[in-house]
Write a structure and sequence with these properties.
alpha+beta, Thrombin, subunit H, Rossmann fold
Length: about 350
C-alpha cells in the first residue's frame, strides 16, 4: 500500500511538472542584430540531414548451461534490439538480415561474446556500430516465509499464509564498438532481478517453478536498463535555424530548432546547443571534429511540432547562441521513467 501511495505521489508530481512547462509569447520577440549572425562552423551532414546511425546487435554468447537451455542468449539479443527501438535514435539492423550477413561472411561470436576484430569488416558496409555481449551470470533462488499471526491497530487478529518468494537474477556484459575499426565506445554491465511471490502449504513446496520464464524476465529488465546509456551514446542532432530576442529585454532570447516531438522531445526538457571545432591530432596527424556545448536550451510548450520546436536560452548564455549552431538531445529521465524503473 505504501509503495502504491508513493508511486501515486510521484505521478501527481510528474503531472504538476508537465503543467509548469515554459511558454513564450512570440509577439514579444523580434529579430535583432544578433539574430542575423550565424555560427562560423560547417555542420556535418549527419546533423543537417538528421541521419540516424545504423547499429547491428550481434548474437550474445554464454557459457552457462541454464542460459543455453533457456535460450537466454537469443533473449538478450532480442531485448537489446527492442531497447534500441524504444530509444528511437538509431536504425537497427533487423535480426534476420544480420544472421544472413553473418552466415554469408562465416562470422561467429564466441561463448563469451568475443569477436575477431580483424574479421569485423566482413559483415559488409553500411553499419556504423556493432553491439556485442554475453550472459555473464544467472541464478535463481526460493525463500520460504512461515505463516504469521499478529494483531492490528483495531485489535483484529490477522493471519498471513506461508509464502514462497522466487528470485531470478541476470547479469550481462555489453560493449558498443565502432564499425569497422572495432574501437570500444562504451562498456556496460547491466544487472536485474525479478521476483514471484506465491502462497504455499509448507516449505517443501517452495521452489522456482519456471526457471526459464523468471530468468527471461530478468534478462529483459537488464536490457531495458541500458535505455539511458543508449540515449547518451546515440543522441539525435538538429540545428538552430532562427533566433529571436525579446523586444524589451535583450538577455531574453529564444532559438528555433529542427528537433521536435518526433525526436522524442517533450516540453520542459533541455537540449544542448553545440559548436563544432576542427582540431589537429598532434600524434596521428589529420583533423578531428570535436563538439563543444555553448549553452543548454529549454523546450517550450507552445509551437512544439513533429520536427520543429522553440527553446528558451538561459539569460547568462544569451550572447552565445547563433543560427547554424547544432542542437543535440540530452538524456532526460522523467519521473514516469523513474517510477517505471522502481516498479520493474
Amino acid at each position: 500500500m505504501r509503495r502504491g501511495r508513493l508511486n501515486l505521489a510521484l505521478l501527481l508530481s510528474c503531472s504538476a511538472l508537465f503543467a509548469c512547462a515554459p511558454k513564450v509569447n512570440l509577439s514579444e520577440y523580434g529579430e535583432k542584430e544578433l539574430d542575423s549572425k550565424t555560427a562560423q562552423h560547417k555542420l556535418p551532414d549527419y546533423v543537417v540531414n538528421k541521419k540516424k546511425p545504423r547499429v547491428a546487435v550481434l548474437p550474445f554468447g554464454t557459457a552457462q548451461d541454464v542460459a543455453k537451455r533457456c535460450n537466454l542468449d537469443a533473449s538478450a539479443q532480442e531485448n537489446t534490439i527492442n531497447t534500441l527501438v524504444k530509444v528511437g535514435t538509431t536504425e537497427v539492423l533487423e535480426r534476420g538480415q544480420l544472421n544472413a550477413l553473418m552466415q554469408e561472411a562465416k562470422f561467429s561470436v564466441g561463448i563469451g561474446g568475443d569477436i575477431d576484430i580483424a574479421q569485423l569488416s566482413r559483415l559488409g558496409s553500411g553499419i556504423d556500430y556493432v553491439i556485442v555481449g554475453s550472459i555473464a551470470s544467472v541464478n535463481t533462488s526460493a525463500n520460504f516465509t512461515e505463516a504469521r499471526q499478529y494483531t492490528d491497530r483495531q485489535g483484529r487478529s490477522i493471519v498471513t499464509p506461508p509464502t514462497c518468494t522466487e528470485t531470478g537474477t541476470a547479469s550481462l556484459t555489453v560493449r558498443v564498438l565502432t564499425f569497422p575499426a572495432g574501437t570500444v565506445l562504451k562498456a556496460m554491465t547491466p544487472k536485474a532481478t525479478k521476483t514471484n511471490n506465491r502462497e504455499v502449504r509448507f516449505s517443501g513446496d517452495c521452489r522456482v517453478q519456471d526457471v526459464c520464464g523468471l530468468l527471461s524476465r530478468a534478462v529483459a529488465s537488464a536490457a531495458d536498463d541500458m535505455r539511458e546509456d543508449f540515449l547518451a551514446l546515440f543522441p539525435t542532432y538538429g540545428y538552430v535555424y532562427k533566433t529571436m530576442t525579446h523586444n524589451k529585454e535583450a538577455k531574453k532570447r529564444i532559438a528555433f530548432i529542427t528537433l521536435g516531438s518526433g525526436d522524442g522531445l517533450k516540453a520542459g526538457e533541455k537540449v544542448d546547443i553545440i559548436e563544432f571545432k576542427v582540431e589537429r591530432d598532434p600524434v596521428k596527424g589529420g583533423d578531428i571534429l570535436r563538439e563543444y556545448v555553448v549553452s543548454e536550451c529549454t523546450v517550450v510548450e507552445n509551437n512544439l511540432a513533429t520536427d520543429r520546436s522553440i527553446c528558451i536560452i538561459p539569460e547568462e548564455k544569451a550572447q552565445n547562441v547563433l543560427v547554424r549552431h547544432a542542437v543535440k538531445t540530452r538524456v532526460n529521465v522523467g519521473l514516469l521513467r523513474k517510477v517505471e524503473k522502481l516498479t520493474k
